[in-house]
């Protein structure tokens, strides 16, 4: 009898070892090699699967690249595109040597299009070289508590020793959420940003995040993919006043895994609640420094800009109260503004040129408007 019991225990242990990811921990069954759910407010880990294992993070690396850029205090500086940056392998926005982009605009390319050439321009502009920037990345990761992360480049292309754990990436993403503009960029679905050369042209950017719309929760986040890393994602969503961060590395079914994590983290989710959460406007957000000349959408734009309308945004402000106060001042001047979170939206125009004409009038009165695609 004792032998039978011992055999049963042994079989149970073997079953636990070979069970699908997450099953032995009472969580969702995933295809990912590593995953974590973290409370964004407290940093408490509510569920994890191999979350401390360092793995190739692919383009989720760009979370830290963006953090260093946002903390640099140089967002309005214009950085030159080097030959080296222009030759960085895809994904890219096909920057050419000698062109220039403001750091703020580069961040939209880095976080939305996951542009490796843009990430390289950021690294060279802030530190002079990949090696110097990687040293800054590693030092900052350690300071923020991402203790097993080691970065060799700003974009996440495969490199020896370039690894991070799901826990590391969740910790970094949590810090990013506390920085102005980080959340704003990740909430953007599509945008056009200016590239400066002999003249000025616009580059169309589109988020790679499939959960940014049409899902039970509005999810913001950063994707990543290389063959060694497989599919990766770090993101956050809010439900009933609670924000959760998830990180997935090495997934074969990225969006299926992500949905399982959020569903598990938030408990039984309602079938079809509103896609847009309270305080977040369904208005794409665009960088400032809008330019006068507009070129045709890039080849990969797949016609999304056809029939589009444009508006003007002010903000984000330091607080919702500040945004409301600005709306009152604008009303005294005869302008109607819609309050959306910590930002204001004005007008609806058939072309970006008309929106820019209105934005120019606002600039003359001391405001800093942004043209947005509605």
* Total of DSSP H or I helical runs spanning 4+ residues: 11
| Structural class designation | alpha+beta
Widest beta sheet: strand line-up:
2-1-9-8-7
Q: Characterize the biggest β-sheet.
A: 5 strands, antiparallel
* CATH architecture title of the domain at 43-269: 3-Layer(aba) Sandwich
Mean pLDDT reading: 83
Low-confidence stretches: 1-24, 268-307
How are helices and strands ordered from N to C?
HEEHEHEHHHHHEEEEEHEHEEHE
Strand-residue proportion:
15-25%
Shape: globular
Provide the CATH superfamily of the domain at 43-269. DD-peptidase/beta-lactamase superfamily
CATH C-level of the domain at 43-269 = Alpha Beta
What percent of residues adopt helix (DSSP H or I)? 25-40%
What does this structure look like?
- It contains 11 helices and 13 strands.
- β11 and β12 form a beta hairpin.
- With 374 residues, the protein is α+β, with helices and mostly antiparallel strands.
- The protein has a domain at 43-269: Beta-lactamase, CATH 3.40.710.10.
- The relative contact order is 0.13.
- Mean pLDDT is 83; it is low at 1-24 and 268-307.
- The longest helix has 17 residues, at 2-18.
- α2 packs antiparallel against α4 (103-111).
- It has helices spanning 2-18, 62-70, 83-86, 103-111, 116-127, 130-144, 166-177, 182-186, 254-266, 320-332, 352-363, and strands at residues 34-39, 45-49, 78-80, 100-102, 190-196, 200-206, 219-226, 230-239, 242-251, 310-314, 337-340, 343-349, 370-373.
- The strands form 4 sheets. Strands 2-1-9-8-7 form a 5-stranded antiparallel sheet, with helices on both faces.
């Amino acid at each position: 009898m004792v032998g039978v019991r011992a055999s049963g225990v042994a079989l149970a242990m073997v079953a636990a070892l070979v069970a699908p990811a997450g099953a032995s921990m009472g969580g969702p069954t995933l295809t990912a090699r590593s995953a974590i759910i973290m409370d964004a407010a407290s940093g408490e880990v509510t569920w994890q699967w191999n979350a401390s294992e360092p793995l190739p993070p692919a383009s989720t690396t760009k979370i830290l690249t963006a953090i260093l850029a946002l903390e640099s205090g140089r967002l309005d500086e214009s950085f030159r595109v080097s030959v080296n940056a222009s030759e960085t392998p895809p994904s890219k926005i096909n920057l050419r040597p000698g062109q220039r982009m403001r750091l703020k605009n580069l961040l939209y390319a880095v976080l939305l299009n996951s542009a490796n050439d843009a990430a390289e321009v950021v690294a060279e502009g802030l530190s002079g070289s990949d090696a110097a920037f990687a040293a800054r990345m590693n030092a900052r990761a350690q300071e923020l508590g991402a203790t097993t992360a080691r970065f060799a480049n700003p974009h996440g292309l495969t490199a020896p020793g370039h690894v991070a754990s799901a826990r590391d990436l969740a910790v970094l993403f949590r810090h990013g959420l506390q920085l102005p503009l980080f959340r704003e960029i990740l909430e953007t679905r599509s945008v056009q940003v200016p590239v400066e050369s002999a003249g000025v042209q616009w580059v169309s950017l589109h988020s790679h995040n499939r959960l940014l719309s049409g899902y039970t929760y509005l999810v913001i986040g950063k994707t990543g993919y290389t063959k060694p890393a497989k599919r990766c994602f770090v993101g956050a969503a809010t439900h009933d006043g609670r924000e959760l961060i998830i990180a997935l590395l090495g997934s074969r079914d990225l969006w299926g895994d992500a949905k399982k994590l959020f569903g598990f983290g938030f408990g039984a989710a309602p079938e079809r609640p509103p896609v847009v959460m309270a305080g977040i406007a369904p208005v794409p957000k665009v960088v400032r420094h809008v330019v006068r000349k507009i070129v045709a959408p890039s080849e990969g734009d797949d016609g999304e800009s056809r029939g589009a309308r444009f508006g003007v945004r002010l903000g984000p402000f330091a607080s919702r109260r500040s945004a409301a106060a600005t709306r009152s001042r604008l009303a005294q001047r005869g302008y109607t503004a819609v309050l959306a979170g910590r930002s204001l939206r004005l007008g609806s125009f058939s072309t970006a040129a008309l929106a820019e004409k209105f934005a120019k009038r606002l600039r003359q009165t001391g405001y800093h408007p942004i043209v947005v695609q509605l």
